[in-house]
Amino acid sequence: MNSEIQSESILPNQDLPRSRSARDEVPPGREHHPDSPLSIHDMTVAYHRKPVLWDVDYDAPAGKLIGVIGPNGAGKSTLLKAALGLVPKASGKVLFFGQPYRSQRNRVAYVPQRESVDWDFPINALEVVTMGRYGKIGWIKPVSKRHRNVAMEALERVGMSDLAKRQINQLSGGQQQRVFLARALAQEASLYMMDEPLAGVDAATESTIVNVLRDLRDQGATVIVVHHDLQTVSQYFDHVLLLNMRMVASGITSDVFTQENLRKTYGGRLTLLDQAAEALARAGE
Amino acid sequence: MIWDSTDTWIVVIGVLAGISSALLGSYLLLRRMSLMGDAISHAVLPGLAIAFLVTLSRDSVSMFIGAAILGVLTAIVTQILHRNGKVEENASLGVVFTTLFALGLILISLFANKVHLDASCVLYGNIVLSTLDQVSVWGWMVPRAAVVLFIVLLIDIAAIAILFKELRITSFDPAMADTVGFNPWICQYILMSLVAVTAVAAFEVVGSILVVAMIIVPPATAYLLTDRLLVMLVLSVVFGALAAGFGHVAAITVPIWFGFEDTETAGMMAVLAGIFFLLALLGAPRYGILGRLVYRVSLSLRIAREDVLGFLYRAEELRSDQAHSWQAGSIGQAVGISPSLARIALVGLHRAGQIVRHDRSWSLTNQGRNRAASLVRSHRLWETYLAKHFDLPLDHVHRAAMDLEHVTDASMQVALSREVNNPSIDPHGKPMPEAKDQENDPQ
Fold it and tell me: Among partner residues B169, B175, B227, which is closest to A122 by beta-carbon distance?
């Protein structure tokens, strides 16, 4: 297990985002666990030449509940999206269970931020959750009763079976988030990657979701959660990954979630790194 | 009104075009890209011109291939511009389709002016002429346009039926769809090709302007009326077909009422689609303007009635003799509503048998007293609850309880009472009315 503390300076100590040709180079130094559910090798991501993530190198330990923590704009969502190939990587490589994503798709469930979809879409809760089965069903083939039953069970696990036929625009924010969680459950994955599933939900929903996440972990799944509330980090997560454009630290929560690392993650981020990014953007124009 | 087979064919062609456009338009609307339909129906023009120049015929198949290529190209180029340049998505769409459309017009005027592929035909179409170009289908003479539109409609329906699940997931949550193996771009390009092919088939007949109206307006109308995808598809098809069918009837009748000659069918179809939208905007039960108005008015009426009931109950509580004369004006003032609203509330309560009038005053009937007791009970329970759980001054809990009592049903009242340990008085020291078995809610 990746329990050693990987702590490093927040300042970029290498050249700015690598060029395309650097992709094939052997990543420097660090050993990667071949079977890690999510193993990120030296990943750098940039939007319109503005770097968002620098040189992230990380192995997620299997069977743990992992929090991704960092300030706004730290690249937490981007970390998930880039790993899944939803946004292009400037450099680096990501493996899921030691394989490229394409071949492991059915073992991974992704939950985007709630605000990323249109909740006025004409669809009900059960239909959204059934989408969790689409990957297993594949193109063209229709949704069978068996798949719909799995979706219904998933809704039940998040306490939403009464609202299965409810249109999604008539659900509260917390209920919508539970529908998203149920959809991920319906995917029956080994790795769950969730973007802010606890943002803006009521207390009852929060405890429901956290209990479901713990159940998943206890059944052997790996759960990676982008989280914003520092108060609850120690209580919820076995491992944390502290992120602020660079990976600041990662490891067992009690070891890594320290004042010192928090200060590194949250303090002074708008200084040298931003200046470097500015200079880079200017140079590119 | 003179009706002959030409009129029938005009309606058939219009309805076929309307149905196809509405089906695809529904998906464009849900993907928030209705204008893509506009763009593509214009941008296919150079594709048509080039296909014509290459094959030197107006053969449908090559025209469709040319159009489909341009349609997909529009979507791709727009996306590339948007991603790589500092150009907003709508702006890049505008740049791409106007440029392509203009290019198409130039190509046509340069090389194709000998044949009847002209620019105004593209903009406005000519539905009457299109009925004259007939082909034989199993011995029946059928306008070529009707045959083409029917085939296109079958293709559209088949594609949507086969890709229903794929279109749904990539429209609702493209990121998640991508992670489970449904590439949103593939669905996007399939949809764009269908739009391009449909636009070509339709605009020869009804013109690209009407195609745009038919792609956007009927789905927007249906979207106001339902929260179900299938119902939305069906409704938009119905509105598209109705607009097309009645559009022609209106085109040959309405202007004559006003002493004009009959007008362009295509224009009237678009106008009718717009009228349907307006009606839905006004009348849709949940999202319509009238629906929301009616809801709001009936809600404030109900609240006024309940406030008046509560007031009469409290008045009875204070003085057991009923000599005091309560007029609409004084009741309204006491409850905080206008005298006219108070009068409407009194009439409503009277009609519901909850109050009776004795000469210059009003008092509660038994039925009204039960209802009023339940309201006052809710009110006082809420006051107790708020005083217990929030550190509020007593005059503040009254205002909040005033609102909450109107939304408290019987089961909530039971739960509330249990929560505050079934008190017999409220925080102001007023007695708690007994819980009644029967709830006589007028709603």
Answer: B227
Query: Could you report the per-residue pLDDT of A173-222, keeping only the tens digit for each?
Result: 999 999 999 999 999 999 999 999 999 888 889 999 999 999 999 999 99
Closest CA to B248 of B344, B127, B390: B127
Residues β-bridged to residue A91 = A44
Residue with tokens 């003032």: B333
Q: Return the DSSP state at A140.
A: S
Using CA atoms, how far residue A93 sits from A14, A33, B180, in Å, is: 18, 14, 19
Fill in the DSSP letter of residue A228.
-
Tell me if B223 and A108 make a contact (CB, 8 A cut-off). no
Q: Are residues B320 and B272 in the same domain?
A: no
B158 part of contact set with chain A, CB < 8 Å: no
Domains: count for chain B: 2
Side chain identity at residue A87, one-letter code:
V
3-state helix, strand, coil in chain A (%, to 5): 40, 20, 35
C-alpha span between B373 and A225 (Å, rounded) = 51
Inter-chain residue contact A85 with B178, CB threshold 8 Å: yes
| Residue in chain A lying closest to B181 (CA) | A135
The answer to whether A122 contacts B163, with C-beta atoms less than 8 Å apart, is no
Same structural domain, B281 and B239: yes
Lowest pLDDT segment from B81-90, B148-157, B430-439: B430-439
For residue B26, give the chain A residue with the closest CA: A122
Nearest to A112 among B171, B176, B232 (CB): B176
Residue B441 lies in a domain: no
Number of domains in chain A: 1
Of how many residues is chain B composed? 443
Q: Which of A105, A123, A139 sits opposite B179 (nearest CB)?
A: A105
Report percent pLDDT > 90 for chain A.
70
Going by their DSSP bridges, the two strands A239-244 and A65-69 should be labelled as parallel
CATH number, position A10 = 3.40.50
Q: Which secondary-structure segment (H or E) carries B308?
A: helix B289-318
Separation in Å, CA of A223 to nearest CA in chain B: 16
Range of the domain at A251: 1-97+228-285
Domain span at B32: 5-287
Q: Looking at the structure, do residues B42 and B184 belong to the same domain, yes or no?
A: yes
Residue B54, number of CB atoms within 10 A of its CB: 10
Identify which of A105, A112, A127 has the shortest CB distance to residue B175: A112
Residue A277 to residues A12, A46, A269, Cα–Cα distance (Å)? 10, 10, 12
- pTM, to two decimals: 0.79
Q: Do A135 and B181 touch (CB under 8 A)?
A: yes
CA torsion angle B108 B114 B119 B121 (round to 10) = -140
Cβ A118–B229 below 8 Å, yes or no? no
pLDDT tens per residue, range B289-312? 888 888 888 888 888 888 888 888
Q: Is the CB of residue A55 less than 8 Å from the CB of residue A27?
A: no
ipTM over cut 0.90: no
What residue ranges in B208-251 does DSSP mark as E strands?
none
Find, among B340, B350, B321, the residue nearest to B442 by Cα: B350
Report how many Cβ contacts below 8 Å link chain A to chain B: 74
**Upper half-sphere CA count for residue B332 (Cβ side, 13 Å):** 14
Choice between B96 and B124, residue whose per-residue pLDDT is larger = B96
Cβ-defined contact of A122 to B180 (cutoff 8 Å): no
